[in-house]
Amino acid sequence: MSNEQPAKVAAALARDVYALTKYKTQKLALSALNNLYKSNLAFADDNLLTATTGGPPGFKVSTGFGFVLLGKSKALKGHAFIIFRGTQYLADWLTNGNLTTSRSESGFLVHDGFHSAFNTMKPRIKDFMKVIQQPKNGIHTIHCIGHSLGGALATLCARWIGTQKSTYLYTFGSPRVGLEAFAKNTTDKLGSDKVFRVYHKTDPVPKLLPWPYAHVPASGIDYYMYSPGSHFSAAYHLMPTYCASIGARNWDVIKGETEETKTDFGIARWLESKGSYSLTVTVVGWLEQALVYVLKKCLGAAHTALAGIVGGGITLIDKLAYVLAKGINLAKNISRWVILFIKKIMQVLGMKYVADKIQLTQNFIRSILHRLQRAVTIASQQALMKII
Amino acid sequence: MTKKIIVSLVLLIFSSGVYAMGIKQCLFSEMTGVVNFEGKPAAGVKLVRMVDLNKEIYDETITDDAGNFHFPAIYRTSILSKILPMEFVVAQSITAHFNGKEIEMWNNIKRTPEENTESRGKPLVVDCDLSQPEFTFISVNNNLIHSLCTWDVEPDPDQATFLFGE
Questions:
Q1: A interface mutation test: which of B1, B2, B3, B6 has the most A CBs within 10 A?
Q2: What CATH number should be reported for the domain holding residue B142?
């Protein structure tokens, strides 16, 4: 029998951790927990909510980063829940463009901000693990749950617990946490059927951090949920919105909703199409996939090892411009696609492509990619201004 | 494998900071009400209100001869900042200074940025009884309220029943 928790339970916990860690007294937090979850769940330890960690400068976890619950009802006996909230501190870190990695305890590269934050929490989590390990509690299954940046922490926590117990991971609107090797290893360790990554189509946060960061699970199922509109929407990042979208549906039903995957044929058709496009989430999706399509052609034809464009001090846009510019000078069936791709970006940006006047140099391609990045930023900014 | 790497590669271009600006949020809904003690209006009671989003803000009022009080709404506008969309979580309390004692009569974790969500859009008019020994808990639009007060509102459906069944 599967020990996974229903989507509505994981989502409610990921939402309520924000309120329950905001209380200034344990008495009120206990009262709220008892009123919301009745006798099904209880705090693992009376002192958990007062946990404070030093952490790096400016990082105060005075309100708590989360807590551990133990299942009390017949159905939940033997289950422990480690639940993380997102924090403004991590949000600032995530958006300042710092992509530095650190090596996790298991030896994989993960984002330095998440790694440091998780490390400051580790002493408390070790205490929690002692409670969880106590034979009298009879815990056989651990559920790590988190929303947004709390999802990143839950991911690190699940990997850290590893295979000590049967461990499930549930994230809602989580950014990427570590590099591909970390994502793959974490997926293998937990088992892809024990990872539930939920995200809305227009939630901007799962789009962070950029390659070479990768989502967990690296294989298996993602729980994609439709959200209306074609622009990024902050409202669709928030946990109450996730709870509303999930409703009473179980995982199997949510699984039925899948993000449209674009075939190579479809991408080629889109690049060749003459239609007029503006910068929407849909068009950004097409451009992302088109870039993959064109890069594959360039790299395949040039026999360039990917390692050659990874690392070094130059920015990723420089590297992409380099590969694409190389593609221009390759066989015609390659350069054609690079040109179509650049044309498409320029069209989306409202720029005119005049074949005779434009030299597709590395510098030019780089400037186009930079303009696209700026335009996407402004588009998400405008979308966010419209909410609430 | 190579394909997967390239798939991730392109997203840097589309990943950028997310901005929010000028979003008006209600930290405390306008509240009017009456304070009673053992069935009689409590006059001249100092009520201290606290609101905590990222830091605590205090203000106060005093009940009139009929025990009536009024707190205006507290709004904040988040000015331009490069932030991710953050959960709205505001701690609120009202403490009554009565007969030499401090009695907390309202404690709410406000989870919705709109005004009057605690009363489902209607003006928030409360009837509070300082002689009550214990808080009553109510969840309305997922705002979690412990109080010595009552007001005209339908609570959220029972969450434990929704999540775990009877």
A1: B6
A2: 2.60.40.1120
Q: In chain B, which residues have their Cβ closer than 8 Å to the Cβ of A28?
A: 107, 146
Q: Tell me the per-residue pLDDT of A242-263, one tens digit each, with 9 for 90 and over.
A: 999 999 999 999 987 777 667 8
Q: Which residue, among A89, A96, A292, A303, would best test binding to B if mutated, counting the most B CBs under 10 Å from its CB?
A: A292
CB-based contact, B15 to chain A, within 8 Å: yes
pLDDT tens-digit series, residues A217-237:
988 888 999 998 877 788 899
Q: Do A361 and A312 fall within a single domain?
A: yes
What contacts 24+ positions apart, CB below 8 Å, involve A108-112? A108/A178, A108/A179, A108/A181, A108/A182, A108/A185, A108/A186, A109/A178, A109/A179, A109/A181, A109/A182, A110/A156, A110/A177, A110/A178, A110/A179, A110/A182, A111/A152, A111/A176, A111/A177, A111/A178, A111/A209, A111/A213
- In this structure, what CATH number is given to the domain that contains residue A161? 3.40.50.1820
Q: For the segment A64-110, what is each residue's pLDDT rounded down to a tens digit?
A: 688 889 999 999 999 999 999 887 666 666 655 566 778 888 888 89
CA distances from A156 to A130, A185, A224 (A): 18, 12, 21
* A327 CA: distance to closest CA in chain B (Å): 15
**Are A99 and A210 in contact, with CB atoms under 8 Å apart?**
yes
Answer yes or no: is B150 within a domain: yes
pLDDT of res. A245: 96
Confidence check: pLDDT of B12 > 50: no
Facing residue for A18 by CB, picked from B87, B160, B164? B87
Q: Which domain holds residue A115?
A: 7-255
Chain B residue numbers with beta carbons less than 8 Å from the beta carbon of A218 are: 4
Q: B65 to chain A nearest CA, in Å?
A: 32
Q: Per the CB < 8 Å rule, is A212 touching B5?
A: yes
Looking at residue B83, its pLDDT comes to 47
Q: Count the domains in chain B.
A: 1
* Tally of structural domains, chain A: 2
Domain assignment of residue B82, given as a range: 23-164
* Mean of all residue pLDDT scores within chain A: 81
Q: Would you say residue A1 lies in a domain?
A: no
Contact between B95 and B50 (Cβ < 8 Å): yes
A352-383 pLDDT, tens digit per residue, is 888 777 788 888 988 888 888 777 666 655 55
Model pLDDT for residues B54-112, shown as the tens digit of each residue? 789 999 999 999 999 999 999 987 654 434 577 889 999 999 999 999 999 999 999 99
Could A385 and B21 be called an inter-chain contact, meaning their C-beta atoms sit closer than 8 Å? Answer: yes
Q: What's the rounded Cα separation, in Å, for the pair A42 and A73? A: 10
